[in-house]
Design a protein that fits this description.
Layout: H1 2-58, E1 71-76, E2 79-84, E3 91-95, E4 98-100, E5 105-116, E6 122-131, E7 150-158
Antiparallel strand pairs: 1-2, 1-5, 3-4, 3-5, 5-6, 6-7
């Protein structure tokens, strides 16, 4: 009887340890997935602004930075207008497999595109993405870390 109880005890310790490892592995896997999604969305934010600049150059606009004001902005692949100022909604929705600011299902991700226009013929574009766990507040970019559920990508665009 004692041997059976000891065997059940040892077996249960092994099962509890294995389940703990599985739970930890799943959590780390979901955190890595969220980090990859957020990093790609941050990169997309800078690429969307770069696309406006390139289209302005291709169209022969008087300025490569026409329609690229400074400030806190948002933009999606399906809405080519860069919206800055006012009361922006940075929440990203999932619609047909793509993330956008309108339509679809609300997600835990928020993206803000910060455009610094203080230098002539140059724009510093910072695309910052936060997700659930960040408290819904964008930290100072210097304090943006994966541990705080925040990533950012920064690009310096010049007039061509």
């Amino acid at each position: 009887m004692i041997e059976s109880l000891l065997a059940v005890f040892v077996l249960s310790i092994g099962i509890v340890g294995t389940i703990g490892l599985l739970v930890s592995s799943m959590k780390n896997s979901m955190d890595a997935r969220d980090n990859i999604i957020a990093t790609n969305m941050a990169q997309e934010g800078t690429e969307l602004v770069r696309n406006i600049r390139d289209n302005n150059v291709a169209a022969g606009a008087p300025s490569a930075f026409a329609n690229i004001p400074g400030g806190n902005c948002y933009m999606s692949y399906n809405d080519p207008a860069l919206t800055c100022g006012g009361s922006p909604t940075y929440v990203l929705n999932l619609s047909s497999g793509y993330y956008a600011h309108a339509g679809g299902t609300v997600t835990k991700f928020k993206r803000k595109i910060i455009i610094d226009d203080t230098v002539a013929n140059q724009r510093t574009v910072t695309s910052e993405v936060i997700w659930l766990g960040a408290g819904g507040i964008f930290p100072n970019v210097a304090n943006c870390t994966v541990a705080k559920k925040c990533v950012y990508v920064q690009a310096i665009l010049t007039a061509r």
